[in-house]
TrEMBL record:
Residues 51-81, 121-150 form the 4Fe-4S ferredoxin-type domain. Pfam families: CCG, Fer4_8. This is (Fe-S)-binding protein. It comes from the Bacteria. InterPro entries: 4Fe4S_Fe-S-bd, 4Fe4S_Fe_S_CS, Cys_rich_dom, Helical_ferredxn. The keyword Iron applies. Transmembrane segments: none annotated. GO terms for molecular function: 4 iron, 4 sulfur cluster binding; metal ion binding; oxidoreductase activity. Keywords: 4Fe-4S, Electron transport, Iron, Iron-sulfur, Metal-binding, Transport.
Length: 453
């Protein structure tokens, strides 16, 4: 583990740059734009995000290096470029030159040069390939700089400059055009609901005109883990809830947010919001998906431009409340469990206690990992990283560290409440011969419901 500060790290950067290939050889660029147009669009959209809060963040960094050691990508690579605060350097450079209190001097004496298209192409990797916006750097920063949010802002400008990795852009565009990034169209969704209902002998509610609860699913669950649909239905039916899936508002994932296109992010959010309002829903339940929680729970009202007329809960929060109220009771598993906290639900979302209440009700002994709960180490696949093939080598290295941490607990059962994390565990586990399975918290609950006496 390196003990360099950010100041020392920055001194290494120029020599690092000399040893890598030219950015043009390493980065994908979609769209037909000249270099001048790319820079203009990037700077224009950087400027749109400049405000009091972001300005405070730009001025606050004391170059202590704490964020470097909080980042799983930096810890895995040791590359100073992977220091979290360095990932928003073009954003900071544009701010200092164009909008900061000393902008006149920075510009006049060229103390901060103009951002170049080659810099933007290089930073594409840093903003997309090596950052999940997990917020661990934000939590540990002594100056409370929300680096994860700044990365999200920087992605807005990168999208408009046509500098989104092509795999991420492709799935985002597909989600905007078809309603799903993985081909889970309304018809596919409906077919898989019918299949799961028949296979698990559970009543499915689809396109009800009125319901108190709207249930969402993510593409990963629909296509890879469809049992989650049956599990959700089983629990809600057991509770006697008025609920429904809706084919006009079911997709919880929001690749508009991950790629940096706020217009597409809004479109994806409004499909859900409109469907919930249409049926008079009092509650929208989000599936086991981390970034979906961020997109609707914490950013949905901003997208709609008004307070949401319904409550939004992650499925783990819903289950915890149901257990506390006595609406459901669970059989005891009697096993030891290690729980992987999804960053966007726990650290970024504030729902860290919910899954632990559920696990307690399941009668398991929780074996917390060395960095668990709010300080949980990210699996490295969120934020769209898992879609980017060139990021695979480092992603597997990040996951290797995660495997070692979970293995050290000695737990019998591995559990999480995010299907994207689960997919990353499955993919990396096969690649690295982990030999263990990551289980769904939701499915554990559905499988261990205690029937009313």
């Amino acid at each position: 583990m390196s003990n360099k500060t950010v100041t020392e790290i920055e001194l290494d950067l120029e020599s690092k740059r000399l040893s890598v290939r030219k950015p043009e050889e390493r980065f994908d660029v979609q769209g037909e734009m000249s270099n001048e147009q790319r820079i203009e669009k990037a700077m224009l959209n950087f400027a749109k995000d400049f405000g009091r809060v972001s300005a405070t963040y730009m001025e606050a960094c004391i170059h202590c290096g704490a964020c470097a050691h909080a980042c799983p990508f930096y810890e895995a690579s040791g590359d100073p470029r992977h220091t979290p605060i360095w990932k928003i350097e073009p954003f900071k450079q544009a701010y200092k030159r164009e909008a900061g209190p000393l902008a006149f001097f920075y510009k006049t004496f060229n103390l901060k040069p103009k951002v170049t298209v080659n810099e933007l192409k290089e930073w594409q990797e840093l903003l997309y390939d090596t950052c999940t916006m997990c917020g661990r750097c934000t939590l540990i920063c002594p100056m409370s700089i929300d680096i994860a949010t700044l990365v999200g802002m920087a992605r807005h400008a990168m999208f408009h400059a046509g500098l989104v990795p092509h795999e991420l852009y492709t799935v985002t565009e597909k989600a905007y055009r078809e309603g799903s990034p993985l081909g889970a169209t309304p018809q596919v969704f409906e077919d898989r609901i019918e299949w799961m209902g028949d296979e698990h002998e559970v009543d499915m509610h689809v396109d009800e005109d009125q319901a108190d609860v709207l249930v969402l699913m993510s593409s990963i669950e629909i296509q890879k883990y469809p049992e989650s649909m049956a599990a959700t239905a089983k629990i809600l039916n057991h509770m006697g809830k008025s609920w429904t899936f809706r084919t006009d508002g079911y997709e919880a994932t929001n690749f508009g947010m991950l790629s940096g296109n706020t217009a597409w992010q809004k479109d994806m959010s409004m499909k859900i919001i409109n469907a919930a309002e249409k049926i008079g829903a009092k509650l929208v339940i989000l599936p086991e998906c981390g970034h979906a929680y961020q997109a609707l729970r914490w950013q949905g009202a901003n997208m709609a431009g008004k307070p949401l007329p319904f409550k939004v809960q992650h499925i783990s929060e819903f289950l915890a409340e149901a257990l506390e109220s006595g609406a459901i009771k669970l059989k005891k598993l009697g096993k030891t469990v290690a729980f992987h906290d999804p960053c966007q639900v726990s650290r970024r979302g504030g729902a860290t206690p919910a899954p632990r209440k559920v696990l307690e009700a399941l009668g398991v002994e929780l074996k917390e990992s060395e960095s668990g709960g709010d300080m949980n180490v990210c699996c490295g696949g969120g934020g769209g990283v898992i879609t980017i093939h060139r990021a695979d080598t480092l992603r597997y290295k990040v996951m290797g560290a995660k495997f070692r941490q979970l293995d050290a607990t000695g737990a019998e059962l591995m559990v999480t409440s995010c299907s994207n994390c689960r997919q990353n565990f499955d993919d990396s586990g096969e690649k690295l011969n982990w030999g263990k399975e990551m289980n769904s918290l939701l499915e554990l609950v559905a499988d261990n419901l205690e029937e009313a006496k």
